[in-house]
Amino acid sequence: MNEKKFFVHPTAVVEEEVEIGEGTRIWHFAHVRKGAKIGKNCNIGKDVYIDVGVEIGNNVKIQNGVSVYRGVKVEDDVFLGPHMTFTNDLYPRAFNEDWELVPTLVKKGASIGAHATIVCGVTIGEYAMIGAGAVVTKDVPPFGLVYGNPARLKGFVCYCGRKLKEKIGENENHIIFKCSHCGREVKIRKEDYERYLKEEDL
């Protein structure tokens, strides 16, 4: 590790064989375990725990008190809000010796709100938005907005994070929205939109 290319606070613990990208900052009392990989220009907040072998992409922001456990992969441009947590075992027992690691994937650009819990085995799609305090128990589609316990699909968001409200067209596979905030167009898969309509009726 080259100390000139990234910053590690003196109180942080970074174990052996950790890869840290240029421009990344690791703050007070963080703990990065052996074999973890952290990309470029990340910000790892106070009291963050990054477990053995975890992969973190580039430009990721991890706020204070987050636990990223073994089996989790976080792609580029992801935001992890304060004190949210991941899990990695569907049947946790303190006395289990044959527990099964269940992987979780957070895809590019997704945001997870404060105190949310991500139950292992799910994929959170590109640019999805997870509300504060949500308990996510199943996959979240790209651009999906979910919140609640258990979290349900409540709509879709733009790249900028605002909720999409204006439908401007469709094609064979997608519903096309235009963001009222930034003006960008976003294509939502029809199967994901149909899931939203079903969950709204629950």
Automatic annotation (TrEMBL):
Pfam families: Hexapep (PF00132), Hexapep_2 (PF14602)
Alphabetic keyword roster: Transferase
SUPFAM superfamilies: Trimeric LpxA-like enzymes
Coiled-coil stretches: none
CDD domains assigned to the protein according to its UniProt record, in alphabetical order: LbH_WxcM_N_like (cd03358)
GO molecular function terms listed in the Swiss-Prot or TrEMBL record: transferase activity
Keyword Phosphoprotein attributed: no
Gene3D superfamilies: Hexapeptide repeat proteins
PROSITE patterns: HEXAPEP_TRANSFERASES
Keyword NADP: no
Xref: InterPro entries: Hexapep, Hexapep_transf_CS, Trans_hexapeptide_repeat, Trimer_LpxA-like_sf
Name by which UniProt lists this protein: Acetyltransferase
